[in-house]
Amino acid sequence: MDVLVPLPVAIPLLSAAALTAFGFWCGRRLDDLVAIVATAATLAVSLLLVFRSSDHELVYWFGGWRPRNGFALGISFVVDPGTAAIATLVATLGLAALIFSWRYFDEVGTLFPVLMLVFVGAMCGFALAGDLFNLFVWFELMSVVAYALTGYGVQHAGPLEGAVNFAVTNSVGSFCILFGIGFLYARTGALNLDQIGAALAGRRADGLVIVAFTLLVGGFMTKAGAVPFHFWLSDAYAVAPVPVCILLAGVMSDLGLHAIGRIYWTVFSDTLSAGDIRPVVVGFGLVTAIVGGLMCFLQRDLKRMLAFATISNIGAVLVGIGLLTRSGLAGSIVFLNTNGLLRSAAFVAIGILVRRFKSGDELDLRGQGRRAPIAGVVFAAAGLALALLPPFGPFLANALVVDSADTLGYGWVPPLLALAAVLSAGTILRAAARIFGGLGEAKDPLFSHEPEESQAEPADSRRVSQLLLWIPAAALAVVGLGLAFIPELAGHALRDAGRLLDRSAHAREVLHGVAPPATPTPSYSPSATAYAYGAASTLGALAFAGFGLYRRRLPIVLRRAAARVADRPVAGLKALHSGVVGDYVAWLTAGVALLGGLVAVMVR
Amino acid sequence: MSYLPFVLAAWIFLVGIFGIVRSRHFIHLVVSLSLTQSSTYVLLLSIGYVKHGGAPIFKDVPLGTKAVDPVVQALTLTDIVVSVTVAALLLAVAIEAKKHAKTMNPDELRPVRG
Amino acid sequence: MVALQATIMILVALGALAVVLTNDLVRLVIVSSAYTLLLVVLFVVLQAPDVALSMLVVGTIGYPLVLFVAIRRDRADE
């Protein structure tokens, strides 16, 4: 029992309650300060938990309701370095977002820091929860807060519609999850993840288990924004205030994927064999990565562009989890943390641009960014690292995934992942070159129009101190790039993943308190193939950025041919993202049906 | 009593989805969403149902009396709270949107396309 | 008992359909409270009196009230 375990949830939630009660009397700056201090404390505790849990899982039973004879009545938090790292990521991004919003908003009520604190606490709780219903409660809490934050303080119709699409689609996703939890409870009479796993272990998966798996994965994919569950994501992230986007795009989407990995390994791994599930999940991941990349290319609104880059990244993480191997899971852990930091840094850079130039549009901002060089450096650095440039985090993660795919005979996966990185990172680099370098053409009819009134951001011409705006940007970028230089980062990720993979040892540890013997940290260095993919995708991304900038200088013959091939699919793809919530829910239902059908076909 | 409640839950869920998809007014949309959520109550409570079991109130009853599962009832209570929160939030957002867009039809009010 | 359960379930199923097919807003609120009442009866039949009680308060009093306020706000602008 470690008393630190509940703190990453307790600190933000209690501070939020205190701020709600007393915040109105304290003035805005004091409220912000309390929120910042509370988030910093959460960050410190989470970081401590990463180290404390390095040898064995920390299992905390609330109220001391420990399991007896492997039967858990109490509710638990289970901390391993991977989940603690996610809690740390949540707190880091929350801290950056709060510092950034200090100067970013001109006016903000007491409720903003309160909502941010609840959001941070709920996400930490979701990352640490050890049983399905807790998972669901934290899921709902973070979702509801996220809906409120997306439409926060916004005076335009567009953002509100984005918030509605977000809320409706995610609610339907959460009903799917609840159905799945109900079915699992009906089958096993348990809610604790490890206990359900123990009850299901060794039995052949019947229809009920397959349906439960489908509904859970479908629901979490909705949160993550995997194709075809992703439509809400681009609408919501494009309109949410930048400080909120930092948390949404940086970690909330990834949390859905984290839950999929954790639930598969603790609950389903001994009843649904990896060989059956792998092609389905990897397929969904690859489609997500490529569609996200393509849609990213078609955007000119920077936030919407990054939203699609997020979807593309999510696809890559999903592939890593979906390979269902130690190396793939380790890769996804590294991916999730570094990509989250880098995407958030890019969002902060956009926020600086919006604050200074009152626009978040790539074409309108052409060349203007020269006056904000720090934002440019951050934005371009994030783009380069996301393009799998060695030796940074995304490259390292990709190397782990490449290894795993090659051993499994999935050699066709890494080229597609590299292609997705080229598409999404190339687009970010294109925007960086156009905005901060003034390169490229000033008009391009291919790109989607800027959403009307989407810039619901504070726009104040009066000069404000830039310091508190760029510190979070630089800090996030430095941490995101620097993570790769932690000694044996990949080795630690491999060891952590290995612990989750051994279902029965994990269950013994959680339910019976028997710690497995400590394993040494494996040593890892990326293979030559991985370096080749990294170099190829970086060069590819640069070339693709050039293509995006000077597309119209290509010979006319080429352009005609390209138009003949691509125009219809591009128009179709754009038309699918219609902005109508009814369509999105229909897609969600179809996606769940497709997922279930594929899983059923593979298992039978 | 065996499969009927599960069929009912699935039916309510699908009817609710149908309502969301055909909705032409935000308030109708919110009501449909709550309706969809009510399918989860039916599902959870029928999972916990025990034939000839009493309500799970364990005061003044002998040990070992047959009762339905209280865990799912606790889950359902949580679920109802969530449902009302989401509905209230959505209505607030919808009214705010109405002020600016002068419409409550989700089809006419699109933030972004493409 | 089984006949009672089957009857109430069929009523709930029909009620759900009636809710989504109602377009007029005021009528929608009334139909949806009626549907909630049916649910309350179903919960009692399923031996969940506590859930039924909270559903009764929330679904037939609180929720319609919120909906009526929303409808009023919606119409006040016109």
Model description:
The complex is a heterotrimer of chains A (604), B (114) and C (78). Chain A is built from 22 helices and 2 strands. Chain A has 604 residues and is mostly helical. Chain A has a two-stranded antiparallel sheet. The radius of gyration of chain A is 23 Å and the shape is globular. The two termini of chain A are 43 Å apart. Chain B is mostly helical and 114 residues long. With 78 residues, chain C is mainly alpha-helical. In chain C, α1 runs antiparallel to α2. Chains in contact: A-B, B-C. Chains A and B meet through α5, α6, α9 and α22 of A and α1, α2 and α3 of B.
Question: Which fold name fills CATH's third level, the topology of chain B?
Answer: Helix Hairpins
Could you tell me the number of beta strands of chain C? 0
Oligomer: heterotrimer
Architecture (CATH level 2) name of chain B: Orthogonal Bundle
| Count of spatially separate domains of chain C | 1
Q: What general outline of chain B do the C-alpha atoms trace?
A: elongated
| Sheet with most strands of chain B | none
SSE string of chain B, helices as H and strands as E: HHH
Strand content of chain C: under 5%
- Which parts of chain B are unreliable, with pLDDT below 50 for 5 consecutive residues or more? none
Rounded to the nearest angstrom, the distance between the terminal CA atoms of chain B is 48 Å
SSE pattern of chain C, N- to C-terminal = HHH
Count of structural domains of chain B? 1
N- and C-termini, Cα separation of chain C: 51 Å
C-alpha Rg of chain B, in Å?
19 Å
Helix content of chain B: 55-70%
Task: Determine the number of helices of chain B (DSSP H or I, runs of at least 4 residues).
Answer: 3
Q: What is the CATH level 1 assignment of chain B?
A: Mainly Alpha
Q: What percent of residues of chain B are in strands?
A: under 5%
- Catalogue the unreliable spans of chain C: none
Considering residues with a beta carbon less than 8 A from a beta carbon on another chain, report the largest interface and each chain's count: A-B, 53 and 41 residues
